[in-house]
């Protein structure tokens, strides 16, 4: 992706210019490449809610930078400065409930506020910017590592199917589910990708198809309901998706429509891979039924996307007023349907609670 298409940029304050989180507006892609510059907490909160920035790792990065936009009065007491940052963290945490990366990143930022003393409080703004930048840079490295590990699973594949957008747009760059595809493409093995549209907000047809095309990876958009028929015809060698939260037993929450794909993949004997960094695991949740599922606005179902697929504006009425609609944004795929989870640390084959625990134990006590 070009610099213009960078998902998230941070603009430090200078003179009269306030700090800002500068986002590629993902509600406008593919019709327009517009940026939205957020100079205040409410602007950034709204941008996360409206999916201007979306995808689990990207939400965490944006929120981490967002903490630095807290309206802090530097002449206030250390206690009040800390309170202002805590309020900002609590507020940003209300933006979206499912992607645990948001809470993980905000916890890291909270750790710095807690660690500040009355003597070091003057350094806190600088430290918070450094921490958000570190979270951003670490995500870049993790995406590259996931690409390398994931590529070991896709070496024999020609065609894969993906759902939603788990690429560079959803992360610092490169992506989670798309990272092995980019890695192999760079090595000269170019896969064909089927991208599910991903109703109702079309992250697959608008975003995945756009970013793969930019990278020169051949992509074919299909409706969500075509996956079964494509597998039945033997056209899919593997399904590969990202995740918003993975429970301790390996159950995976991802964009609504992922679970039926896993069921179809099992029936057709197609491997089903999940690619996610370790900060997408929520080891405090024993199983996937405990993962909070975001319920989004009915209007996303009731109206087609606005002109030029701009999700800011309502398009035509798509559902009669008399009918009810439901709009859960995520579903949970049981671990038993997952062939492997790829993290930046390696591959967990046929994930179970024990294997997830072993994966994390190995990180905490690296072999000498
Ligand atoms: C690398 S991102 C993995 C997930 O965050 C992605 O698959 C997804 O479901 C995103 O949902 P979205 O509602 O667009 O934020």
From TrEMBL:
<feature type="active site" description="Proton donor">
    <location>
        <position position="244"/>
    </location>
</feature>
<comment type="function">
    <text>Catalyzes the interconversion of methylthioribose-1-phosphate (MTR-1-P) into methylthioribulose-1-phosphate (MTRu-1-P).</text>
</comment>
<dbReference type="Pfam" id="PF01008">
    <property type="entry name" value="IF-2B"/>
</dbReference>
<dbReference type="InterPro" id="IPR027363">
    <property type="entry name" value="M1Pi_N"/>
</dbReference>
<feature type="binding site">
    <location>
        <position position="203"/>
    </location>
    <ligand>
        <name>substrate</name>
    </ligand>
</feature>
<dbReference type="GO" id="GO:0019509">
    <property type="term" value="P:L-methionine salvage from methylthioadenosine"/>
</dbReference>
<feature type="binding site">
    <location>
        <begin position="54"/>
        <end position="56"/>
    </location>
    <ligand>
        <name>substrate</name>
    </ligand>
</feature>
<protein>
    <recommendedName>
        <fullName>Methylthioribose-1-phosphate isomerase</fullName>
        <ecNumber>5.3.1.23</ecNumber>
    </recommendedName>
</protein>
<dbReference type="InterPro" id="IPR037171">
    <property type="entry name" value="NagB/RpiA_transferase-like"/>
</dbReference>
<dbReference type="GO" id="GO:0046523">
    <property type="term" value="F:S-methyl-5-thioribose-1-phosphate isomerase activity"/>
</dbReference>
<feature type="binding site">
    <location>
        <position position="96"/>
    </location>
    <ligand>
        <name>substrate</name>
    </ligand>
</feature>
<dbReference type="InterPro" id="IPR005251">
    <property type="entry name" value="IF-M1Pi"/>
</dbReference>
<dbReference type="InterPro" id="IPR042529">
    <property type="entry name" value="IF_2B-like_C"/>
</dbReference>
<dbReference type="InterPro" id="IPR000649">
    <property type="entry name" value="IF-2B-related"/>
</dbReference>
<comment type="similarity">
    <text>Belongs to the EIF-2B alpha/beta/delta subunits family. MtnA subfamily.</text>
</comment>
<dbReference type="InterPro" id="IPR011559">
    <property type="entry name" value="Initiation_fac_2B_a/b/d"/>
</dbReference>
<comment type="pathway">
    <text>Amino-acid biosynthesis; L-methionine biosynthesis via salvage pathway; L-methionine from S-methyl-5-thio-alpha-D-ribose 1-phosphate: step 1/6.</text>
</comment>
<feature type="binding site">
    <location>
        <begin position="254"/>
        <end position="255"/>
    </location>
    <ligand>
        <name>substrate</name>
    </ligand>
</feature>
<keyword id="KW-0486">Methionine biosynthesis</keyword>
<feature type="site" description="Transition state stabilizer">
    <location>
        <position position="164"/>
    </location>
</feature>
<keyword id="KW-0413">Isomerase</keyword>
<keyword id="KW-0028">Amino-acid biosynthesis</keyword>
């Amino acid at each position: 992706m070009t610099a213009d298409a960078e998902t998230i940029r941070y603009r430090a304050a200078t003179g009269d210019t306030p700090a800002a989180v500068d986002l590629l507006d993902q509600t406008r892609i593919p019709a327009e490449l517009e940026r939205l510059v957020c100079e205040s907490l409410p602007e950034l909160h709204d941008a996360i809610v409206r999916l201007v920035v979306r995808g689990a790792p990207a939400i965490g990065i944006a929120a981490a930078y967002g903490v630095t936009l807290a309206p802090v009065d530097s002449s206030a007491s250390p206690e009040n400065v800390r309170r202002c940052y805590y309020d900002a963290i609590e507020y940003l945490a209300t933006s979206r409930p499912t992607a645990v990366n948001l809470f993980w990143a905000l916890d890291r930022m909270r750790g710095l506020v807690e660690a500040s003393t009355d003597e070091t409080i003057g350094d806190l703004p600088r430290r918070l910017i450094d921490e958000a930048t570190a979270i951003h840079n670490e995500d870049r490295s993790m995406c590259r590592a996931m690409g390398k590990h994931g590529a070991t699973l896709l070496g024999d594949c020609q065609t894969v199917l993906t759902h939603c957008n788990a690429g560079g747009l959803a992360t610092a760059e490169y992506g989670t589910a798309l990272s092995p595809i980019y890695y192999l493409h760079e090595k000269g093995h170019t896969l064909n990708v089927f991208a599910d549209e991903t109703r109702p907000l079309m992250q697959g047809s608008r975003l995945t198809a756009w970013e793969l095309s930019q990278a020169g990876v051949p992509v074919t958009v299909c409706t969500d309901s075509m996956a079964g028929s494509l597998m039945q015809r033997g056209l899919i060698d593997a399904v590969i998706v990202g995740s918003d939260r993975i429970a301790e037993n390996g159950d995976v929450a991802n964009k609504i429509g992922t679970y039926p794909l896993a069921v179809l993949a099992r029936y057709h004997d197609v491997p089903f891979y999940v690619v996610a960094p370790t900060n997408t695991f929520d080891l405090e949740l024993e199983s996937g039924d405990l993962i909070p599922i975001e319920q989004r606005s009915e209007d996303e179902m009731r109206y087609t996307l606005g002109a030029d697929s701009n999700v800011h504006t309502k398009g035509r009425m798509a559902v009669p007023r008399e009918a009810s609609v439901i709009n859960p944004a995520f579903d949970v795929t049981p671990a038993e349907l997952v062939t492997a989870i790829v993290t930046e640390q390696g591959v967990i084959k046929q994930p179970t609670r024990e294997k997830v625990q072993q994966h994390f134990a190995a990180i905490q006590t690296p072999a000498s």
